[in-house]
């Protein structure tokens, strides 16, 4: 999918009071993916403890996963192939070199209409595809703020739908 130009960029901001709201945002992203039938590549940005895995848990549970969801820090990827669409949760925090991703067949994860949630994507720069959606999580008081930026038209549809559903 073609990246958006600067004039086409679609953004929104969502204030998240607590962990349950972060999971709800993830669930809404999953609903948008299910409604469109298209996969989505999502880069999750933010410091340690900002809620990247919590947001991923919301996506995965909304797709039907009932087990625990933890960050795959040591395995790099946790597949959820029993879901439809299949989902893959990556954590590249401990990645030594982006070329290591080539050895694990990283490109194969992005061929279909699956959901790929990627924490610490900047560590895979040059190997990972362009994201459909970038979500940056930052602390605000006792909660968080999620900044959603579309990278493709597919991501734009998700951002516009979430923006429309978010109270001002």
Automatic annotation (TrEMBL):
<keyword id="KW-0819">tRNA processing</keyword>
<keyword id="KW-0479">Metal-binding</keyword>
<dbReference type="GO" id="GO:0046872">
    <property type="term" value="F:metal ion binding"/>
</dbReference>
<protein>
    <recommendedName>
        <fullName>tRNA threonylcarbamoyladenosine biosynthesis protein TsaE</fullName>
    </recommendedName>
</protein>
<keyword id="KW-0547">Nucleotide-binding</keyword>
<dbReference type="GO" id="GO:0002949">
    <property type="term" value="P:tRNA threonylcarbamoyladenosine modification"/>
</dbReference>
<keyword id="KW-0067">ATP-binding</keyword>
<keyword id="KW-0963">Cytoplasm</keyword>
<dbReference type="GO" id="GO:0005737">
    <property type="term" value="C:cytoplasm"/>
</dbReference>
<keyword id="KW-0460">Magnesium</keyword>
<dbReference type="GO" id="GO:0005524">
    <property type="term" value="F:ATP binding"/>
</dbReference>
<dbReference type="Pfam" id="PF02367">
    <property type="entry name" value="TsaE"/>
</dbReference>
<dbReference type="InterPro" id="IPR027417">
    <property type="entry name" value="P-loop_NTPase"/>
</dbReference>
<comment type="similarity">
    <text>Belongs to the TsaE family.</text>
</comment>
<dbReference type="InterPro" id="IPR003442">
    <property type="entry name" value="T6A_TsaE"/>
</dbReference>
């Amino acid at each position: 999918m073609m990246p958006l130009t600067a004039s086409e960029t679609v953004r929104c901001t969502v204030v998240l009071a607590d962990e349950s709201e972060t999971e709800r945002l993830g669930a809404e992203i999953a609903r948008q993916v299910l409604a469109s039938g298209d996969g989505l590549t999502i880069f999750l940005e933010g410091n340690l403890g900002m809620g990247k895995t919590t947001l991923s848990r919301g996506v995965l549970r909304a797709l039907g996963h009932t087990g625990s969801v933890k960050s795959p820090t040591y395995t790099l990827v946790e597949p959820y192939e029993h879901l439809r669409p299949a989902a893959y949760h990556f954590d590249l925090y401990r990645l030594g070199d982006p070329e290591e991703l080539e050895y694990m067949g990283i490109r194969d994860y992005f061929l279909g209409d699956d959901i790929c949630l990627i924490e610490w994507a900047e560590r895979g720069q040059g190997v990972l595809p362009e994201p459909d959606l970038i979500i940056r999580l930052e602390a605000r008081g006792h909660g968080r703020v999620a900044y959603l930026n579309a990278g493709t038209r597919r991501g734009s549809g998700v951002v516009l739908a979430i923006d429309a559903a978010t109270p001002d």
